[in-house]
Specification:
By secondary structure, this protein is mainly α. The chain is built from 20 helices and no strands. It is globular.
Amino acid sequence: MARSAELVDFRRKSPTLGRNVVDQAETQVRGASLARASAAMAVATATSRVSGLLAKVLLVAVLGLGVVNDSYTVANTLPTVVNELLLGGVLTSIAVPLLVRAQQRGPQEGTEYARWMITMGGVLLLVATTAAVVAAPLLTELYLGPDTRANAALTTAFAYLLLPGIVCYGLSALLQAILNVRGVFGTPAWAPVVNNLVVITTVVVYALVPGEISTHPVRMGEPKLLVLGVGTALGIAAQTLVMVVSLRRSGFRYRWRWGWDRRLSEFGGLAGWVVLYTLVSQVGMVVITRVTGQGTPGSVATFNYAWLLSQVPYGVLGVSLLTALMPRISKAAAAEDTSAFVSDLALGTRMSSVLLMPISALLVVAGGPLAVAFFSLGASDVAAADRLGYALAAAAAGVVPFAITMLQLRAFYAMRDARTPTWINVIMVVVRSALCYLVLATADPRDLVVGVSAAMSASFVVGAVAGQIWLHCRVGRLRTRSTLLAIGRSLAATALGCACSTTAVAVVRGAFGPLGPAADAWTSLVIHTVVVLGVSFAALALFRAPELKPAVSRIARIVRR
């Protein structure tokens, strides 16, 4: 209410100001609010991403980028796949808007709805987990296909140990949605850190346990296999437990809430389209896994690591921004306040571009050095790490359009429209799959993973354009001009930063002569990081990008303290 009153007062007192000035004022007021709401989440998510990166580095060091890591990666993906198909996608997409609407009818109404969702969701997850464990060999065959270079038997063995985590994945998504609606953002952001610490401990124990994982034949009772599988499952269980404790501390008390709910039809209508959306996404993932699996051994794990690394900036900044913004967009949609809805949506798009563009560009130019610096240790080697770097660069090119697309899809869900996101996803998956098979037909097996990563990025560009057009048709003017100006500023500033960093690396190499792979990687990584980020954000400040002011003000206050 204070935010809205401030904007109204500004408009009343400044009737002669141009629209651009008013937009800048709105950006500062709304942006400052977002900066405050997402600050704690950004710190927690950054810690989560750093600890997650450490876990991945240790995994590559002990497993390498070969057949064992391919099998573990595919098996570790299966619980999230089944969860997304049945519940996770529904919860992350439409649970927040529905919970917000229930909360607006009164605290008791919101609590009862949350209890009902936990009951129904928990039962569904238990049934799904049982069915998935029984069908583990079929899931493995579906994702790997007949031409894969991964080990199907080892993947199935890992799947038996990891698929029970479906319950925890689903409950984590549900509890996070409930906590966010109740105004608790910090704990859900910190909970993955606990998961990462358990996985790190698991990898250390794995390295200390004697022996090796046998692939011919695969023996289910091997200590290393059990340590890696059970330890990974315990990580997600610990993450769920943290959120259970946090929800209880917030004053929420769970009660069994079984039976038909009059809102079930509303929930089911939206959920049907979201499940279809998720099915389409998984078809795309099956295509990606099958195509990548026909590359050189380790290609599936390489793609997975490249994708996860490219998502670090989005996870730290984009998710924090989206989590803070979604309740506001949902409330504006529920109140049919088109002006506030468009303002928050446009602000989120501009801030995503300004904050993420320089970091994604850093991953593009420094992908190779980063991969060699962190992932050429232990059982891995420089050649495998270098290929990971190229895949990371290709995947990072799609970070900004991915963030914009995710924001657009959530905006549709806030308007209780689950159909349009599904059709946008169909367009992206068709484009992505066609490009993947084109890469399979034309590329060398060693370069297959890079081509698949580029196909992912290209599909998000298509999705962002389609989403913007669809939203314009739905709600009218979206302040597209100011959004394009913000993206243009970000591109110009980022291009300048990349040019300066590339020149600086060339000068250092010329001055000091040839270095070893590790020394050259670390030197290049440090130079790229300092120059790309420093020059890009300095240029944005010189361009007076209004989207940057809330973040700069927040940092200045922290420094002054």
